[in-house]
Structure formats: structure tokens, C-alpha cells
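From the shared-data thread, chain only:
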Amino acid sequence: VQLQASGGGLVQPGGSLRLSCAASGRTFSRYTMAWFRQSPGEEREFVAFSAQFRYPQYADSVKGRFTISRDNAKNTLYLQMNSLKPEDTAVYFCAADESYVVGRMTQSNSYDYWGQGTLVTVSS
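Structure, as C-alpha cells:
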């Protein structure tokens, strides 16, 4: 599967952005889909994932501010980001995997497919 992330940009603290991730393939609904982010000099960190028949899971740092969703008819994953903070500044990546393993889907090495990333900058 190929992934194409978009929607990043410059936003002021407290603002909102919606990221999109368009996926190829005919079995999108079965994939576990996730967002990760990476700041300069930092490791890639988990943001949120969405898996079939399961509740979404979020990193504590974004819980209550970010919402992950998917439109299976459009093969698209979204990340609605509200109340953005400067520490949310990062390159955001979407990821996909055909499997779901309990307790492992917050780890980047659980995903086989990655998009190219989109930069989100939160600054006044």
C-alpha cells in the first residue's frame, strides 16, 4: 500500500489543522492506521491509531485535543488537531499495517507502510 500525507502547515498556538493520509489499495478498512510524529533530534513518537472494530488510541500528550478518523470509502485517514501547542511542532507521518497485535500498535516498528510526512509548525 502507498500512503500520501498532506495538510501540514504553519499555525498559531491554540489553532487547528487537519491532516489527511490517502492510501492506495482495496482493503483499506482492514488496515491498522496510525499517525506518528518526529521532531528534530528526537525519536519518532506515537500519536494515534485506528484499527478495525477497536476504539482509537491516543498518546497522552494529545488526548482530548487530537481526533483520528478514517473514511474507508475514500481510503483516507485523518487527524484533526485542535488546541495546538508549540510542542506539537513536528513532521507527521501516517503508517499502515495489515495486522493488529495487542499492545504493539503504538510502536513504529509494528507498521510496514509509511507515508512521506507532512510538516506541522506551531508558532506565533
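The mean pLDDT is 95.
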